[in-house]
TrEMBL record:
Cross-referenced Pfam families: HSP20
Origin: domain of life: Bacteria
Protein name: SHSP domain-containing protein
Transmembrane segments: none
Alphabetical list of CDD domains matching this protein: ACD_sHsps-like (cd06464)
Residues of the SHSP domain: 30-141
Lineage: Bacteria, Pseudomonadati, Bacteroidota, Cytophagia, Cytophagales
Similarity comment: family membership: Belongs to the small heat shock protein (HSP20) family.
Length: 141
């Protein structure tokens, strides 16, 4: 028996618009070997926090760099190959390489950045350096 997922978006008056939208937007933005994980960014009084949703990774699968105030996060999740024992019917999780970069403000403590991976979330804590206040007053002319 073969399972076929029915997608209600494929039917109805918007289906042609959806087809063109997916073709032009998705095909230009995604590579078959890359994906873009979801990211949450928060600021507290003492730090910036970044959480990247990347389930199925191991701690060693990440490459995190900081250069010239730019934080870069990269990783790769390889697709498990089908075998005689396992035949994939549907694959909805994302596989391949990803790359995210963030321009950090000047008032951070670069040496205090911490990263942890737990329950599919890569969490980075970027502490602020209170001696590097980023404030300026701009006069209106």
């Amino acid at each position: 028996m073969n399972l076929v997922k029915r997608n209600p978006e494929w039917f109805g008056p918007a289906s042609v618009d959806l087809l063109f939208d997916r073709f032009f937007n998705d095909s230009l933005q995604k590579s078959p070997n890359a994906f873009s994980p979801k990211v949450d960014i928060a600021e507290t009084a003492s730090a910036f926090e970044i959480q990247v949703a990347v389930p199925g990774f191991s701690k060693g699968d990440f490459n995190i760099d900081l250069k010239d105030g730019k934080l870069s996060i990269a990783g790769e999740r390889k697709l498990e190959k089908e075998s005689k024992e396992k035949n994939f019917i549907s694959i909805q999780t994302e596989y391949g390489k990803f790359f995210k970069s963030f321009q950090l403000p000047d008032n951070i403590d670069e040496k205090g950045i911490e990263a942890a991976y737990e329950n599919g979330i890569l969490a980075l804590r970027i502490p602020k350096d209170e001696t590097k206040k980023v404030e300026s007053k701009i006069a209106v002319k």
